[in-house]
UniProtKB/TrEMBL annotation:
Organism: Paraphaeosphaeria sporulosa
InterPro entries the record matches: Oxoglu/Fe-dep_dioxygenase_dom
This protein's record includes keyword Phosphoprotein: no
Key words, A-Z: Iron, Metal-binding, Oxidoreductase
Top-level taxon in the UniProt lineage: Eukaryota
Start and end residues of each Fe2OG dioxygenase domain: 154-259
PANTHER family given in the database record: FE2OG DIOXYGENASE DOMAIN-CONTAINING PROTEIN, MYND-TYPE DOMAIN-CONTAINING PROTEIN
Protein name: Fe2OG dioxygenase domain-containing protein
GO molecular function: metal ion binding; oxidoreductase activity
């Protein structure tokens, strides 16, 4: 690789690195909604951003009517209400969690109780209170290109689906670090709503790419008088620390994309793409005829997980790119470079090392390079071609195009993207992982600045 190319690539990589870090801080958001007044009058207008006390009702075997009722905020001085609260605690069941496709009960991993949504109803609506609009603004940036068109030619809204009521009680309710299992390819996140009721501990910690956000609702003086909430991308690791006093009562919602809702919502913070240092670093490289003079591909592995190997998941991309992925996509798109989300075969785990290398004649120094195997998104490639423990060239060739990609970041989230037969001691089926990545087509120096005429991948 020429030294100019190396210098320019390093400059882009460094800038891209800090850009991803800065944009990676958008992975969770939260808020507080005070509860005021006592109005139960239908049609009484609630002032914006404020809600009235609300009731939870549940199927109760203790109640003569078959229905238990508790009003939030819970008043600890009201003996009747405290009795209702005790009944609720007794009638909740142990909460399981998903592990390798199974529902598992294991108190060393999660100690909490739950009511399924079919067993309760609650007079609380996150849409009415603006929570869902806020999530759409922050977590779905709906990036726009220069001409104002939405990326992926669609705008996305948020649909929140009530999932469970959970109680994490003292002395030791908790949920160890995990990621949530998406319930469909359209699920992108989770919303947790903490109902007003005294407790301590039980901090929710959400992590992504070296950043972490802590929601310590129990420590807030508003814990008794406000609804507090947090939403985050499903692929972000999170945990609930031990509750040391009281009961932490939450509603959880699964968050889904809705597609093509026009211009009604989603006009969240728009980035001024052209003023970004990353934009000028790439422009500088493109202006230099010695940078990738014969054209080629730049690759940026996605920082978030996507359902990139299913048809439904792939149909949503690139419109549903999250946080920093959408930001990076927008920068390259604003430079009028052809950029696509692609499925990349895992070539990092020594599978192809040494076997599949070639010499790049265009470089003065003959250096060995790894080829990347790239394909459109949306399906698991199944081949009956057999291999030994390690996949052979002919298997890999069935996956897609072998391309020389200049990678700027490391892979992160793997999906099974290809399966093939194995022989050896025992015949079987082997899975090869794929990663979702942004692949940018850099035109030859001679035609840069004009519309790219580069061919796209198959
Ligand atoms: O209660 C919380 O803050 C988070 C709960 C959670 O992670 C879950 O239900 O999957
Ligand atoms: Fe979770």
């Amino acid at each position: 690789m020429s030294s100019i190319k190396t210098a320019l690539t390093d400059a882009i990589s460094a800038e891209l690195g800090s850009f991803i870090v800065s944009k990676s801080s958008t992975f969770a958001c939260g808020g507080t909604i005070p509860i005021q007044g006592v109005s139960d009058t239908p049609g009484d207008l609630k002032p914006a951003g404020i809600t009235f006390p609300f009731a939870l009702r549940w199927d109760s075997k203790y109640s003569a009517t078959g229905v238990g009722k508790l009003t939030f905020p819970v008043d600890p001085t009201n003996t009747m209400e405290m009795q209702n609260f005790s009944k609720l605690l007794e009638e909740c069941e142990p909460a399981s969690f998903g592990y390798k496709g199974e529902d598992v009960l294991d108190e060393t991993y999660r100690k909490a109780t739950k009511l399924d949504r079919s067993a309760f109803s609650v007079d609380f609506c996150p849409y009415e209170l603006g929570i869902i609009d806020r999530i759409a603004q922050i977590l779905l940036p709906n990036a726009k290109s220069d001409d104002g068109a939405h990326i992926g030619s669609s705008t996305h809204g948020v649909r929140a689906e009530l999932y469970k009521l959970n109680i994490y009680g003292a002395p030791s309710g908790f949920f160890k670090s995990h990621v949530d299992t998406p319930r469909s390819d359209l699920q992108f996140g989770s919303l947790v709503v903490s109902l007003p009721c005294h407790y301590e501990g039980g901090q929710l910690i959400v992590r992504h790419a070296g950043h972490s956000m802590t929601f310590d609702w129990g420590a807030s003086e508003l814990v008794n008088t406000s609804v507090q909430w947090a939403a985050f991308y499903s692929d972000c690791e999170h945990e609930v620390l031990e509750v040391t006093e009281g009961n932490r009562v939450t509603l959880t919602y699964n968050l889904f994309y809705t597609s093509d809702i026009g211009e009604l919502v989603g006009n969240g913070p728009t980035m001024s793409v052209k003023s970004l240092p990353l934009h000028s670093k790439i422009q500088e490289a493109l202006d230099n005829p010695d940078f990738m003079s014969n054209g080629g591909y730049l690759g940026i592995h996605c920082q978030h997980a996507y359902a990139h190997s299913t048809k439904e998941g792939a149909q949503q991309l690139p419109g549903v790119l999250k946080g920093s992925d959408m930001a990076v996509y927008s920068v390259f798109q604003s430079l009028r470079l052809e950029i696509e989300v692609k499925s990349v075969l895992d070539s990092q785990n020594g599978l192809f090392r040494d076997q599949y290398r070639y010499y790049d004649d265009s470089d003065e120094t003959t250096r060995k390079k790894d080829l990347s195997y790239i394909r459109r998104l949306g399906e698991v490639v199944v081949t009956e071609t057999g291999g030994y423990e390690e996949p052979l060239q002919e298997i890999i060739d069935e996956f897609g195009d072998a391309v020389d990609v200049l990678w700027l970041t490391q892979p992160r989230h793997a999906n099974v993207g290809m399966v093939h037969l194995t022989y050896g001691n025992q015949a079987g089926i082997n899975a090869i992982y794929t990663y979702a990545a942004l692949i940018v087509n850099i035109p030859k120096a001679a035609i840069r600045g004009r519309a790219s005429d580069a061919a796209s991948f198959t």
